[in-house]
Design a protein that fits this description.
Elongation Factor Tu (Ef-tu), domain 3; Ribosomal Protein L3, Chain: B, domain 2; six-stranded antiparallel beta barrel; 3 helices; 14 strands; 31% strand
Length: 327
């Protein structure tokens, strides 16, 4: 009898598939840049809509025509720079060497991180400049501002942003923005690519049928239908990681590459549908439109970074934005 082959069901690209530790998912690999500026930003996912735009790409079937594009709306209020963190080169990696915190911090920051009563900002900044040759990287410590988003949230999200350029340029830029706000318009422009770092929708504990996409058993199989056919080989006498198991599904950290920034807007009312976005509300202040969908539900914190991989240039001119109510 001929041997039948079947492709492996379920992706092994992301292991272990477990819950992330926090919503502001850590970015371990930052893109490279020679310009002294933050390499990322953060906002909150409001929902999806669509726009009509003119395709300015060359040598495409729709070049010069008006096309339909699904877009994701992300509210991007300014981030407040609360501190500076310096990293040195260690034996097993890059440990944190020192920190400098701003003199005046938002009142709600103490809800998320401990705040020193006397930060000694000027003294620590001077020490940071003197020992600049001991450090390999300088990061900004930024916090979101819950008062500028429409849904109820009291605790700001605190995260790090890497800076481009050499260490001297990084220190100079960080000193200039410490204790101030930074906006997305300073970092991104329309029709450029960005990478999206987000956390997917959590679906709890699920079985192998939903979690791995395996086939249900035949109706004559023993007792069960929604289970795997075999628990593994006798040798080795243990569970192998490639074997599908029930477990956590969703709430995983994911990175999507090369999303096109279609629009950077300042007035969120021009994109808010009638009645507001479902499970979010009206968009207030600055926003960004990204081509396509991104991981996570509404209200999820979304981190945007400069692109890590090269992609073909894309250019669109928006002619109309849909504000029809999704309800």
């Amino acid at each position: 009898m001929a041997k039948t082959n079947k492709p492996h069901a379920g992706s092994l690209a992301y292991l272990p598939r477990k819950r992330v530790k926090k919503i502001s998912h850590r970015i371990k690999n930052w893109p490279k840049s020679d310009t002294p500026m933050p390499l990322g930003f953060a906002g909150y996912k409001a929902g999806m809509t669509h726009v009509m735009a003119t395709d300015n790409r060359k040598n495409t079937p729709t070049s010069g025509l008006e096309i339909f594009i699904p877009v994701t709306v992300i509210q991007i209020p300014p981030l407040f720079v609360v501190g500076i963190r310096a990293y040195s080169q260690g034996y097993g990696g890059k440990p944190s060497a020192t920190e400098v915190w701003a003199e005046k911090l938002p009142e709600d920051l103490s809800r998320s991180v401990p705040v020193a009563k006397k930060p000694n900002t000027a003294k620590k900044l001077a020490a940071l400049k003197e020992s600049a040759d001991q450090y390999t990287e300088i990061h900004l410590i930024v916090a979101t501002q819950p008062s500028k988003i429409p849904f109820a949230r009291k605790n700001p999200d605190v995260m790090e942003l890497a800076i481009g350029g050499d260490v001297a340029a990084q220190i100079a830029y960080a000193e200039g923005v410490l204790g101030k706000e930074i906006s997305a318009k300073e970092l991104f422009k329309e029709n450029q690519h960005v990478d999206v770092v987000s956390v997917t929708k959590g679906k709890g504990f699920q079985g192998v049928i939903k979690r791995a996409g395996t086939r249900q058993q035949h109706h004559k199989s023993t007792k069960k239908r929604r289970h795997i056919g075999s628990g593994g080989a006798w040798v080795p006498s243990r569970k192998v990681y490639t074997e599908h198991q029930p477990g956590q599904l969703g709430f995983h950290g994911r990175v999507e590459l090369n999303k096109v920034v279609l629009k950077l807007g300042e007035d969120g009312t021009e994109i808010t549908p009638k009645g507001g976005f479902l499970r979010y509300g009206p968009v207030q202040g600055p926003y960004v439109l990204l081509h396509g969908s991104i991981p996570g539900p509404a209200k999820r914190l979304v981190r945007l970074t400069q692109p890590r991989r090269k992609a073909k240039e894309e250019s669109y001119t928006i002619t109309r934005m849909s504000t029809h109510s999704p309800q």
